[in-house]
Amino acid sequence: MNNKTGDKDLNLVIAGHVDHGKSTIIGRMLADTDSLPEGKLEQVKETCRKNSKPFEYAFLLDALKDEQAQGITIDSARVFFQTDFRQYIILDAPGHIEFLKNMVTGAARAEAALLVIDASEGVKENSRRHGYMLSMLGIKQIAVVVNKMDLVDYDEDTYNEIVAEYTEFLAELGMEAETFIPVSGMLGDNVADSSENMDWYHGKTVLEQLDSFENEALPHNKPFRMPVQDVYKFTKGGDDRRIVAGTVGAGELNIGDEVVFYPSGKKSTVKTIEGFKEDQQHKVKVGKATGFTLDEQIYITRGELASRADEAEPKVSARIKANLFWLARQDLVKDKVYYLKVGTAKVKARLEKINRVIDASNLDQDESKEKIERHDVAEVVFKLDKAMAFDLAGEIEETSRFVIVDDFEIAGGGIISEAMEDEQSWVREKVMRRNYNWEQSLISREDRAEKYNQKSTLILITGEEDVGKKPTAKALEKRLFNDGKVVYFLGIGNLLYGVDADIKNGDNGHKEEHLRRLAEVSHLMLDAGAILVVTAVELSQSDLELIKTTVNPQQIETVWLGDRVTTDLEFDLHIPEFTSEKEVSGQIKGLLQDRGIIFRPW
């Protein structure tokens, strides 16, 4: 094999309409760069001869899929080869689910693209669709390969017509191809060597064009972003470190930097930067899997987005406008719950609105569609079940791309174009300000849970009037107290005539502020490690979402008491009948044991 001299590998995506010759182009490049195992080309040719089958370079890909042991790696999404200049990793085209998943989640960074068009068929629907998807994914270096020129007798006019048509289409997307290369993948014209059959073409060969692509610079100069993968706690040998781990998506982080985690708004200062089997570091840069410890131990979880306090902050919202491409066979519809993933964050999402569906093959727009079908591209609004942190397309790619998961499968993906106002925005701003200025205790949440042998939890008991909510709540408090738990029953009246005394009682216009204050009191009680039991009449899902903005959703359990469910609340336990205080409180205690909030004795 040749020795590469380029600075680094280049990730290349190859796209094109079915049967336009993608596999032939790849096979030819493997052969012409001596990237095949010794004797493999002759072996495939001989197999074709024995089977009276004409040899095609596309056959090399099929023959190599089981060849990892012989020094080449080929799978459904990646092919490796190299020129004298550098090594290339070819990623399969848009439309291939693995490619899209990797691109959107940042697992792969396609830095350039080859888009293959059949000279004999011309620009097809998929040629345009793939161009649109490449533009959505932010791939700016594109070369168009006009393949099968031998089938049109190497006609320059045919080539020029394709160049004119596709250049016009790309211009509508705000894109421009670096070059159009007329080739015959089968015969090798203009792949590795210039073609005598097309003396009218004076540009680069395919391999020369690849070597002229520039490696995309990592976003060192962007604001620091690190999606939190996990928080690791050490206990062995007196090691009390808590390491916040993840991969830096943009920017850099230094010891002493103040970091803010979103969407919670919690902050602390970097104490140390940790690496696996590495010496002490003072700085970590983009692309690095790393971990760091904090001066003050704050409670954060997977899915939060770490940023620096002295740099631009990410957007935070539970409603987003996005450009989406849909790949699943089942339509994207409004009455279904999906999962939306950005970085390490994963939240439930519903399609709220379809602004327009765009036909990627001709850019026609339809503003009347009520569902999004396979291969549709659309501008949509998603409503999330809780706020998440992200950046906008064009700002930081790694934190502006998302995928939609449906039934455990990647069903589509796209880029976030706008953070929209949601019903909890006003509360979230207060919560982030509170968290930013929060004075940390020397006693951690985990220390309190271990001391009290319980997880701090807010238990919301709701239902219609006079269904036994208060007797149940008081009985539950007494039961848990007798078990040695730190527990408190908070009646709404205690709030209304105390903390809420400055708000006019009975004025429904202040309901949201009542709920916000209830949530803030709950937050204090949970921070102290207590189990808090609260009753309220007919809580709705929007009421719960407002409370979740202030209280960690993982610390809330909801119980609907009574046969008639009168709101859209997504409760954790439904008790249709108030039989007795003892029996109903026992059922709720069972829920707490099932959730691991309190211990269940064997």
Could you name the key traits of this structure?
Rossmann fold, six-stranded mixed β-sheet, six-stranded antiparallel barrel, sulfate adenylyltransferase, 14 helices, G_TR_CS, Elongation Factor Tu (Ef-tu), domain 3, GTPase activity, alpha/beta, elongated, kinase, about 600 residues
Describe the overall structure.
- This protein has a six-stranded mixed β-sheet with strand order 2-3-1-4-5-6, with helices on both faces. Strands 7-8-13-11-10-14 form a six-stranded antiparallel beta barrel. A six-stranded antiparallel barrel has the order 15-19-17-16-20-21.
- Helices cover 25% and strands 28% of the residues.
- It has helices at residues 22-32, 40-50, 59-64, 97-105, 125-136, 156-172, 206-212, 425-436, 445-452, 469-482, 492-496, 511-527, 541-550, 581-594; strands at residues 10-16, 78-82, 87-91, 112-118, 141-147, 179-182, 226-233, 242-247, 252-254, 258-262, 266-274, 283-285, 289-294, 305-308, 315-326, 337-342, 345-358, 365-366, 377-390, 401-406, 409-419, 457-463, 487-490, 531-537, 556-561, 573-575.
- Helix 12 (511-527) packs across helix 13.
- It has four domains: 10-212, 3-Layer(aba) Sandwich (Rossmann fold); 226-308, Translation factors (Elongation Factor Tu (Ef-tu), domain 3), CATH 2.40.30; 315-427, Elongation Factor Tu (Ef-tu), domain 3; 441-594, Rossmann fold, CATH 3.40.50.300.
- It is elongated and about 90 Å long.
- With 602 residues, the protein is α/β, with parallel strands linked by helices.
- The chain is built from 14 helices and 26 strands.
- Strand 17 and strand 18 form a beta hairpin.
- Its EC number is 2.7.7.4.
- It is an enzyme of class 2 (transferase).
- GO terms for molecular function: ATP binding; GTP binding; GTPase activity; kinase activity; sulfate adenylyltransferase (ATP) activity.
- This is sulfate adenylyltransferase.
- Residues 7-218 form the Tr-type G domain.
